[in-house]
Amino acid sequence: MGQSLKNKKVLFVEDDKANQYYMQLMLEDIGCSFDLAFNGQEAVEKIKGTKFNIVFMDLRMPVMDGFEATKVIRGGVDKSVLIVAVSAHALSDIMEKCFLAGMNGFIAKGIDVEKFGKELLSWIEKS
């Protein structure tokens, strides 16, 4: 799997340092190149300057939340980048709100490394 993801660029948008650290370990384990953003505004700025294959977007963050950041990105910054919501709240109304904002997928926090790697590869292959 690592070979398939070796040249892929991932942006992980999350304000919690523990979650950032955990995701960093997972992305390193599966061989992805990645960058971190602490809030939606920072994510928008990073996407303006770098082409990412996929963005994992937390929903609730200070400065700019994931919903607003996705709307800004879809509004012209990068209409084609895959954006996957990452949230501890896997309720159907939250998931629907993610898709309405322009997100392509949803993954619940408490992520299993092997499952995450397979899902990441699947999303990237579709792009």
Which architecture name does CATH use? 3-Layer(aba) Sandwich
Q: For the record, give the distance between the C-alpha atoms at the N and C termini, rounded to a whole number.
A: 17 Å
Coarse morphology: globular
Q: Mean pLDDT across all residues, rounded?
A: 85
Radius of gyration over alpha carbons? 13 Å
Task: Give the oligomeric state of the chains in this entry, treating copies of one chain as homo and distinct chains as hetero.
Answer: single chain
How do the SSEs run, as a string of H and E?
HEHEHEHEHEH
Sum up the structure in keywords.
single chain, 5-stranded parallel sheet, 6 helices, alpha/beta, Rossmann fold, 127 residues
Task: Please give the structural blueprint.
Blueprint: H1 2-5, E1 9-13, H2 17-30, E2 33-37, H3 40-49, E3 54-58, H4 66-77, E4 82-87, H5 92-101, E5 105-108, H6 113-126
Parallel strand pairs: 1-2, 1-3, 3-4, 4-5
Helix pairs in contact: 3-4
In short:
The chain has 127 residues and is an alpha/beta fold.
